[in-house]
């Protein structure tokens, strides 16, 4: 009788310990205190805190919102084309004039397509559209090194959910993404000087850019 009681007690203890086991495979008895907090992704939190404390994350976020509010960030394309028409070229000139105010800032150009055609073809088409925008912005005096991160989203992020042709889905979007590495004003942390730059003087369009829209629209279709 006594032996049976001890067996029952032992089995109960094993069950209790097993119940304390964590679904991630860690034991509350053997795991290091705090080992499972946030899944171990403290590196991301540290990076975020560093960017917040330095002012970089807040500045980039605010600048991205300002860019989207002050100039059109999107241009559209004809079906199966990466050709930039006169209307789109005028929008890109506005983008370039705005971007020229902030030589410390990098931008990404995202290329998109509608859902007609294969995914692999549309990925390439989205990339050609993004590259076409980068070429025009560089003609307007923006360094390619600030637009080097050209991304294609293909047909994966439609604005209008349809399998048919849709012009709104055939687009590129220009976005603020961060700072140019090793730029002196950024390395010194002089964010106020960047923010309060003389916008009017720095945004003057060089006279040598006259007529670029015409040369763009006369180019060949990709």
Describe it for me?
The longest helix is centred in the middle third of the chain and has 21 residues, at 119-139. Helix 5 (119-139) links the parallel strand 2 (105-112) and strand 3 (150-154). The chain has nine helices and four strands. 23% of the residues are buried. It is an alpha+beta fold. The chain has a single domain (51-207), classed as OmpA-like domain (60s Ribosomal Protein L30, Chain: A, 2-Layer Sandwich), CATH 3.30.1330.60. Strands 1-4-2-3 form a four-stranded mixed sheet. One of its GO terms (cellular component) is cell outer membrane.
Descriptive tags:
single chain; 222 residues; alpha+beta; 4-stranded mixed β-sheet; 4 strands; 11% strand; disordered C terminus; OmpA-like_sf; membrane; Bact_OuterMem_StrucFunc
Q: In short, what is this structure?
A:
The chain has 222 residues and is of the alpha+beta class.
Write the layout of secondary structure elements.
Elements: H1 2-19, H2 42-54, H3 56-70, E1 74-76, H4 86-99, E2 105-112, H5 119-139, E3 150-154, E4 171-179, H6 184-187, H7 191-195, H8 199-202, H9 212-217
Parallel strand pairs: 2-3
Antiparallel strand pairs: 1-4, 2-4
Helix pairs in contact: 4-5
Subcellular location: Cell outer membrane
Protein name: Outer membrane porin F
InterPro entries: Bact_OuterMem_StrucFunc, OMP_bac, OmpA-like, OmpA-like_sf
């Amino acid at each position: 009788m006594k032996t049976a009681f001890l067996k029952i007690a032992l089995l109960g203890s094993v069950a209790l310990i097993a119940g304390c086991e964590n679904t991630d495979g860690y034991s509350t008895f053997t795991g290091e205190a705090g080992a499972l907090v946030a899944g171990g992704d403290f590196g991301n939190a540290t990076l975020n805190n560093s960017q917040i404390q330095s002012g970089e994350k807040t500045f980039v976020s605010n600048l991205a919102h300002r860019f989207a509010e002050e100039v059109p960030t999107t241009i559209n394309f004809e079906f199966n084309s990466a050709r930039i028409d006169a209307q789109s070229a005028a929008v890109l000139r506005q983008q370039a004039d705005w971007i020229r105010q902030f030589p410390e800032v990098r931008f990404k150009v995202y290329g998109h397509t509608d859902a007609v055609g294969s995914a692999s073809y549309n990925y390439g088409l989205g990339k050609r559209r993004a590259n076409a925008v980068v070429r025009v912005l560089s003609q307007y005096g923006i360094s390619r090194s600030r637009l080097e991160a050209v991304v294609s989203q293909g047909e994966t992020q439609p604005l209008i959910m349809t399998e048919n042709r849709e012009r709104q889905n055939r687009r590129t979007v220009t976005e603020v993404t961060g700072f140019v590495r090793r730029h002196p004003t950024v390395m010194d942390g002089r964010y106020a000087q960047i923010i309060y730059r003389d916008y009017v003087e720095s945004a003057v369009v060089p006279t040598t850019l006259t007529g670029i829209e015409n040369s763009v629209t006369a180019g060949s279709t990709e």
